[in-house]
Amino acid sequence: MKRTLALFLAGALGLSMLSGCSSATAKELTAEPIKLTDADMTAHGLDALNVYAALANFGLDLLKQSRGISAEKAMASEMDHVPFSTLVSPLSVALALSMTANGAEGNTLAQFEETLGDGASLEAINVACRALTAIYRNSGGSTKCSIANSLWVDPEGQIKEDFIGRCRGIYDAQVFSAELSSAAIVNDLNGWVSEHTNKMIPSIISEPFEENTALLLVNALYLKNKWLYEFNPLSTREMDFHHAGGPDSQAEYLQKFDTELSYLQGEGAQGVVLPYDDGRLAFFALLPDVYTDAAYLSFGDWLNTLEGDRLPQLINNREDALFLRFAMPKFTAEWSGNLEEILSELGLEDAFVPGTADFSKMGDNPDGYYISQVIHATKIEVNEKGTEAAAATVVAAPSGAAPPPPEGITLVLDRPFLYGIVDLQNGVPLFLGTYE
Predict the structure, then answer these.
(1) DSSP labels for 124-177?
(2) Distance from C-alpha of 117 to C-alpha of 165, rounded to nearest angstrom
(3) What is the pLDDT of residue 198?
(4) DSSP 8-state secondary structure symbol assigned to residue 227
């Protein structure tokens, strides 16, 4: 019987300290870690830069496809004009998929390399993921970042020691032995995810897996950051938010007046970059021009034309400018869903097809393995103190953005907008979302 694999990806952005709970019945395993050497890191360092660029494209495509699912659910609702938002963590998804790629061969491996690295080798993808993990775990300022990976191996899974060793050595993965079809796995897995997302995602599954499930591959990402310059709570006030095609709603708005911020303009939109106090990561927001006389008549039309490589360039071209007023909603958002069809559309076609998927480096089952589920859950909180990440200067990108108006800017995010947490030095998106 062909054995199945399941991936679970939990990304949380929050404002509280990490706390813990632990797996109750699963037994932690040890295997000799197979680590990347200094020579490996050096040999593939330049190729890792290509992986960072590919992750920007992957992240935006992932958001677009996930938003399409959210839009379909909203349209299918019995209520008219149901507001919806989408939130994904491209970094969390990429880390789990990269770990999985270490068990792939042949055309399946080539599809992982194309999707995650724009054709870069698995070795370069591993180096890039290892480097990013080290960078974010050791961020400066008040940033707190937890990136955790784990493997959950069924006793009948026949998973190879070499694959486990690579996941342990390169991705610092914990390895547990557990009967994946047993009811106990529900509490064990949910407890692990809850622990590593500071309880922001308390559960990710509600029932055990089918008998033929061989392995679970799990990533959990948690971030806590403070703004470099906090919002004054006395300036927070309620105002209308204009949902596309539906009635307005009331939201609390964070506000700044007569202050210098980083201004974004281009790609049919204008926006802002808000730095955090760690000097590397930043929150950005983009408000498209979707008026009746503009090039795009809806937020969705605009988003679907935005290319992944243009987003980092737009952020790189930011200009400091005087904002007479800036306002954005104070909000909490969360999203969850299955990514199998989305990832297949993005290029991982073979991995989900029994008899076609080639994970022969992962295990010894003669009938092979394939991915049956990819479940993703995310959450973010945005308030006067912060959300995540930080700000700094990125490597120069092609110029061409229009200069900000000298008399000052008024930017109020009171209709659908794109936002995210990005690494300003390499363009990697940690989180991307739409507020609609």
Answers:
(1) HHHHHHHHHHHHHHT--TT-EEEEEEEEEE-TTS-B-HHHHHHHHHHH--EEEE
(2) 22
(3) 87
(4) B
